[in-house]
Amino acid sequence: MPYTADELKGAGHLLKNQMLSGDTYTFTLYRPKNQTGKSENLSGSGYFTFETVRDSNGFYPASTGRYASGTKTAISGSNTLISSPYIFSYELNTNSNTPQTSSFEFIPDVDIPVSGAYLRATGDYDMYISPETQDCGRQQQFQGGQNYPTQLQSILGSSTGTNVTISVRTGTSIPDRWVLTLGGTQVLDTGYICPSNQAGIGQPGRTNFTQSLQGRTAPEGGTYPLAPGGTAPNIIESDGYPRINTFIPDGPFPIQDNTTFTFAKNTVASVLNISVYGPQTGTFWTNTVACPV
User: Fold this and answer.
1) CA nearest 50: which of 100, 13, 3?
2) Which of 19, 121, 213, 231 has its CA 20 to 30 A from that of 128?
């Protein structure tokens, strides 16, 4: 889930997605390019703070969830952790393995609801939290950039013998791929899909698509370009890159680029893990996982 530097300034921004007890969440904070031209990147350090929402009087009453309680592990450029059950802070961008980037992992002790905490940072950091977690029936989206993959989670509950539908939207001519796993088992792979064949074999957008995948690891293993072959929906074309599977959109604007997939839920596992592969610049997609029926 992305947060911009403007969102993290001042009082900060409320948590956009829920976090589940025992799951590992990676916080990555990026320093943007310096727009003044004086140097390539902004310099100096900053601070990140995660704080449980206080009551109207500015306190943490006994009923307040201890949302900052859990395991914190510094990965790179995150130092001097200050922590309590309700708030924790990291100093950023010192001794980082990647210049201008800081990261750490957080494993919460309790479930943290949407808007249960404020996230804020000084130093003009943009931030991304992975994976994103959302109740079924709510839309998740990504706009712009190359994420390979974006990691999402959807909470389905423990019932079995049900069907689950995911509705996805892609850009008109920029394909994306969804791979879904439940309880460690893959339940759906859409292959690369979009409504237009402009990125298919012989089409003008094919070069941009293949260049975006060159040297990347395929979800099924191996590094692009791969040997031609495979099985639907993951057919590797003669140029060593995936076939683009086109679809007829479900309906008119504003859902003109939507299509749906259904899979059976035959396990009590409740967390659906979703990996969305969007290798091309400018990709735009949304997905909504319906609750099981």
Assistant:
1) 13
2) 213
- Dihedral through CA 205, CA 208, CA 211, CA 217, nearest 10? -80
pTM score of the predicted model: 0.75
Least confident window among 16-30, 133-147, 198-212, 224-238 = 133-147
Alpha-carbon gap, residue 245 to 202, rounded angstroms: 14
Q: How far apart are CA 249 and CA 235, in angstroms?
A: 22
pLDDT tens digits, 114-170? 889 999 999 888 899 999 888 888 888 765 556 789 888 999 988 898 999 999 998
Q: Which two tokens stand for residue 144?
A: 């712009």
**Rounded Cα gap, residues 149 and 277, in angstroms:** 4
What 8-state DSSP symbol labels residue 22?
T
Concatenating the DSSP letter of every residue in 212-239 gives HHTTPBPTTSSBSS--SEEETTEEE-TT
Cα 266–Cα 176–Cα 113 angle in degrees, nearest 5: 60
Pairing of strands 271-278, 147-155: antiparallel
- Model pLDDT for residues 11-53, shown as the tens digit of each residue: 999 998 889 899 899 999 988 765 555 545 556 679 999 999 9
More confident residue, 211 or 257: 211
């504003």: which residue's tokens? 254
Stated length of the chain: 293
The Cα 194–Cα 127 span in angstroms is: 28
- With CA atoms as reference, report the closest residue to 193 among 212, 216, 204, 209: 209
Q: Nearest to residue 180, comparing CAs of 113, 267, 281, 254?
A: 267
